[in-house]
UniProtKB/TrEMBL annotation:
<protein>
    <recommendedName>
        <fullName>Glycosyltransferase</fullName>
    </recommendedName>
</protein>
<dbReference type="Pfam" id="PF00201">
    <property type="entry name" value="UDPGT"/>
</dbReference>
<comment type="similarity">
    <text>Belongs to the UDP-glycosyltransferase family.</text>
</comment>
<dbReference type="InterPro" id="IPR002213">
    <property type="entry name" value="UDP_glucos_trans"/>
</dbReference>
<dbReference type="GO" id="GO:0008194">
    <property type="term" value="F:UDP-glycosyltransferase activity"/>
</dbReference>
<keyword id="KW-0808">Transferase</keyword>
Length: 480
């Protein structure tokens, strides 16, 4: 049997990160079938259905997976949701170490470890085994740059970043207002902030950072990062994106069919005019308050445009469903305003909790995307070239929204009122601008350019494909 170079990949217990890193594994094997890949999967509480489908599909791609014993925190422990994940990762380190050592002693030569950036603590384990170590950064180069500059920011700014009058200037990035920095940087006295700094410092241990972006999307940012790498100030930076889910192609059909047990929304899309429907979704866990959900419903109605909306049970905490993947399906329509469903019959379609996003974005009837700006949704949208309405909720989504609207000018950004609500009139105006206004022609043209550039980056001789092939080849050669 051929001795293959063995790459171990460490994910984290969040669906969107798992989806992204498993797409990276598939991409690596597509570019170099002489690699052997094992994905280590830490679990927080339990695997969501969406995560289960993903992991189950791996064996058909010859990707081996190791599920770690689940970590859970007692209800009474009261750990802030944004700290549950880092704690779970720290607590998973002993089982990751055991798994690594046993893989190290197996037949195929263990050459490199690739860890999600929230699994940065595993870099130490790789160093102790003397194998190469890489971070997979599943979000933008701009957010990566913020991480790598965070100690500098911490030292040079003394107030809360959101209180700064002037935008913050990071080399190669668009100037950004402090309030648009990731949520973790919004309260400098918090444990979440401290963790952000620690984890960002941790990235420097890596031999390289694979960032899910591409030159043509974030040219100046990537160039500035790479200049720092050349001066040995940052690890090597490898732009390898857009790495996105393929959707129901390549035999994924059966796995997804269970999860999305009906495709009614796609059948409804089949009956709509080309580019006429706005797809509305806040990612794998993003959640609106009841008040905000009412405004969104009434805004959609007021716009008079067609829409396909993924609805979740409302909650005041936008990240409440993050670790479950989705909320309960039962009778979700009861959270919508009185009479809404009847009034929008024919014009709108509501999907409870989860929809086949990639298929919807790919559908010819879809004309725009109202998104929370998670990076996977952003890239999936770039690949399909749709104009966007950006409505960030938490995490690094505000940073992405600023880049897409102020920097790339491919999105309309919604405005929140003084109570943190986006009002129905504001929503209706944004929808009309993106679907039918003069503005949409410009946005659509700019998006088309990005769409083509993203396809080019992934071609055999494209910028991202060449970077990843080269790396895969280096690992293969070490594996000998
Ligand atoms: N997703 C999906 N159906 C849904 C909601 C989300 O398939 O109803 C997928 C989406 O295609 C993307 C991921 O979940 O791949 C969401 O990732 P993103 O980074 O956009 O947001 P997050 O979930 O991390 O907030």
């Amino acid at each position: 049997m051929e001795n293959k170079a063995h790459i171990v990949v460490v994910s984290i217990p969040v669906f969107s990160h798992q989806a992204s890193i498993q797409s990276l594994c598939k991409r690596l094997l597509q570019l170099n079938p002489h690699l052997h890949i094992t994905l280590i999967v830490p679990i927080l509480n339990s695997l969501s259905n969406a995560s289960k489908s993903l992991i189950d599909s791996l064996s058909s791609y010859n990707i081996h997976s190791i599920l770690l014993p689940p970590i859970s925190f007692p209800q009474a422990s009261n750990i802030h949701p944004s700290l549950q994940l880092p704690r779970a990762m720290s607590q998973s380190i002993p089982s990751i170490r055991d798994a690594l050592i046993s893989l190290y002693n197996s037949n195929n030569k263990l050459v490199a470890l690739i860890a999600d950036y929230l699994a940065y603590e595993t870099l130490e384990l790789a160093k102790s085994l003397n194998i190469l170590s890489y971070i997979y950064f599943p979000t933008s180069a701009m957010v990566l740059s913020l991480c790598l500059h965070s100690s500098w920011l911490h030292q040079t700014v003394s107030c809360e970043y959101r209180e700064l009058q002037e935008p913050i200037k990071i080399p190669g990035c668009i100037p950004i207002h402090g309030r648009d920095l990731p949520t973790a940087l919004q309260d400098r006295s918090s444990e979440v902030y401290e963790h952000f700094l620690r984890r960002s410092k941790g990235l420097y241990l890596a031999n390289g950072i694979l960032v899910n972006s591409f030159k043509e999307l974030e040219e100046e940012t990537i160039t500035a990062l790479q200049e720092q790498s050349k001066k040995n100030k940052f690890p090597s930076i490898y732009p390898i994106g857009p790495i996105v889910q393929a959707g129901w192609v390549n035999n994924d059909n059966n796995n997804h069919a269970n999860h999305y047990n009906d495709s009614d929304c796609l059948r409804w899309l089949d009956k709509q005019e080309p580019k006429s429907v706005l797809y509305v979704s806040f990612g794998s866990g993003g959640t609106l308050s009841q008040n905000q959900m009412n405004e969104l419903a009434l805004g959609l109605e007021l716009s008079g445009q067609k829409f396909l909306w993924v609805v979740r049970e409302p909650n005041d905490l936008p990240s409440v469903n993050y670790f479950n993947g989705s909320s309960k399906h039962d009778n979700i329509l009861r959270f919508l305003p009185n009479g809404f469903v009847d009034r929008v019959k024919g014009a709108g379609w509501v999907v409870p909790c989860w929809a086949p996003q990639v298929e919807i974005l790919r559908h010819k009837a879809t004309g725009g995307f109202l998104t929370h700006c998670g990076w996977n949704s952003t890239l999936e949208n770039v690949v399909h070239g749709l104009p966007m309405i950006v409505w960030p909720l938490f995490s690094e989504q505000r940073t992405n929204a600023a880049m897409l609207s102020d920097g790339l000018k491919v999105a309309e950004r919604v405005k929140f009122n003084e109570n943190g609500i986006v009002e129905r009139e504001e929503i209706a105006i944004a929808i009309k601008r993106v679907l039918i206004g003069d503005e949409q022609t410009k946005i659509r043209a700019a998006m088309e350019v990005l769409k083509n550039a993203s396809a080019d980056a992934m071609k055999e001789d494209g910028s991202s494909a060449m970077v990843l092939s080269q790396l895969a080849m280096e690992w293969r050669n070490i594996g000998g």
